[in-house]
Amino acid sequence: MEAEVYTQVKTSIKHTLRIDLENYKEEQMKRRLDSWLVRSHFSTWNEYFNLITKDAMEQERFRNYLTINVTEFFRDQNRWDHVRTEILPYLINNSAQHPQAGGLKLWSAGCSIGAEAYTLAMLMEDFVPSHKYSILATDLDRGALLKAKSRGPYNQEDIRNLSTKQRQQYVTPSSPYYVNEKLQRNIRFQEQNLLDDHFEGDFDLIVCRNVVIYFTTASKDLLYMKFSKALRPGGVLFVGGTEIISVATKFGLQNFGISFYKKV
Ligand SMILES: C[S@@+](CC[C@H](N)C(=O)[O-])C[C@H]1O[C@@H](n2cnc3c(N)ncnc32)[C@H](O)[C@@H]1O
Predict the structure, then answer these.
(1) Which of 60, 108, 110, 231 could pair covalently with 117 via S-S, beta carbons 3.0-4.6 A apart?
(2) pTM of the model
(3) Which strands form 260-263's sheet, in the order they lie side by side?
């Protein structure tokens, strides 16, 4: 894609979808955009943007493609085992030093269709049932958030990591699966652009996994700084399997095991 065309496409995407591609790695994004246009059987971006200003469904498909909202419950199960065995006990202990009325404050940042937020809720309900907690779950993709708020429908693949007991307790007995209302009671779903919008504070745990893959280094740095400020002292940031924060100390964070960083 030519530089001039990319500039125009970026402007149109910012205007129609409120996504600023300046924050995303240019070469990967150009490749993704090129292949989308070919797949959509359009020859120019002007024609395509004419369509999406009139067609809300197509606009949503395009947004989904750009933001890639692939997810599942307990994605990377061994990391979630670590949350259960090490991180939650640590956070409960840490929070005893700064008690909060609402209990542990957790955030699934870039929650897609909600699987990650419901994973957090299942862990709390299963392993520390008497402990109070609240979960904020945010994403910029309205379609994904709508599904998250509707508690489904989820398919067999989405729930493949749930144990038999978790299936019995938390999801409807057959496909399409819906999470039960009880699990949603402490979750607040909210539209938010991580790169633009204001963050709440005092989180014990921020889970931001598989969201920053296409972000530029500058945008990631900005985001990690904002996350660090949003954590309470001793709070933990949980990132994706391939996402390493190389100089965590510059954000006031320190390594706390693979994929985990603690606010110092
Ligand atoms: C691949 S999904 C990851 C879902 C979940 N965190 C997981 O690991 O299973 C990435 C999500 O990040 C969201 N996302 C991408 N850029 C974002 C931004 N700037 N602000 C908020 N959400 C964003 C996308 O809409 C998408 O739902």
Answers:
(1) 108
(2) 0.88
(3) 187-191, 133-139, 104-109, 203-208, 231-239, 260-263, 253-255
The residues, ordered by sequence, that sit 6+ positions from 8 with a Cβ below 8 Å of its Cβ are: 45
Q: Which pLDDT tens digit goes with each residue over 120-162?
A: 999 999 999 999 999 999 999 888 999 999 999 999 989 999 9
∠17-110-177 over CA atoms, to 5°? 100
Q: How, if at all, do strands 253-255 and 260-263 pair?
A: antiparallel
152 lines ligand 1 (CB under 6 A): no
What spacing in Å lies between the alpha carbon of 223 and ligand 1's midpoint? 13
Q: Is the CB of 139 under 6 A from ligand 1?
A: yes
Mutate which of 14, 63, 67 for ligand 1? The one with the most ligand atoms within 8 Å of its CB, which is 67
Q: Identify whether the C-beta of residue 135 lies closer than 8 Å to the C-beta of residue 116.
A: no
- Measure 193 CA to ligand 1 centroid, in angstroms: 10
- Tokens standing for 140? 């910029």
Q: What are phi and psi of 92, to 5 degrees?
A: -65, -40
Pocket test for ligand 1, best of 66, 139, 196 (most atoms within 8 A of CB): 139
194 lines ligand 1 (CB under 6 A): yes
Query: With contact defined as beta carbons under 8 Å apart, do 155 and 175 qualify?
Result: yes
In eight-state DSSP terms, residue 22 is G
Does 17 contact ligand 1 (Cβ within 6 A)?
A: no
